[in-house]
Amino acid sequence: MSEDLDRTRPVWRQVAAVITARIAEGAYPVGGKVPSVVELSTEFGIAASTAQKALTHLKAEGLIRTEVGLGSFVADGSS
C-alpha cells in the first residue's frame, strides 16, 4: 500500500489525506486499528515526527481516537 508523495507539499498533510481516503473506502473500518507511527514511517519513508503529526491532525479532526498503550483507531463519528 505504498504511496508516492509529492515532496513539494507538506508530507504530513499528504499522509493524513491517504489515511482519510483509506478510512472513507473502508480499508480501515470504524473501530479498526490505524497503522502506528513506526508503521507509517516505514510505509511512506518518512520521519517518525512527520507520521506523528499526521496522526495528531487526524485525531484533532475527529477521524481517529487514541488509547494509551494500544494505538490509534478509527473513530465512530458519534462523539
Q: Brief description of this entry?
A:
The protein is α+β, with helices and mostly antiparallel strands and 79 residues long.
Write down the overall geometry.
globular
Order of helices and strands: HEHHEE
**Mean pLDDT over all positions:** 93
Radius of gyration: 12 Å
Largest sheet: 3 strands, antiparallel
How large is the count of helical segments? 3
Helix content: 40-55%
Order of strands, widest sheet:
1-3-2
Uncertain residue ranges: none
- CA-CA gap between termini: 29 Å
Strand content: 5-15%
The number of distinct β-strands equals 3
Structural class: alpha+beta
Task: For the structure shown, list the relevant keywords.
single chain; alpha+beta; 3-stranded antiparallel sheet; 3 helices; 3 strands; globular
Describe this structure in words.
It is a single chain. With 79 residues, the chain is an alpha+beta fold. Helices cover 44% and strands 13% of the residues. It contains 3 helices and 3 strands. The protein has helices at residues 11-24, 37-44, 48-60; strands at 33-34, 64-67, 71-74. It has a 3-stranded antiparallel beta sheet, covered by helices on one side. Helix 2 packs across helix 3. The termini are far apart. The mean pLDDT is 93.
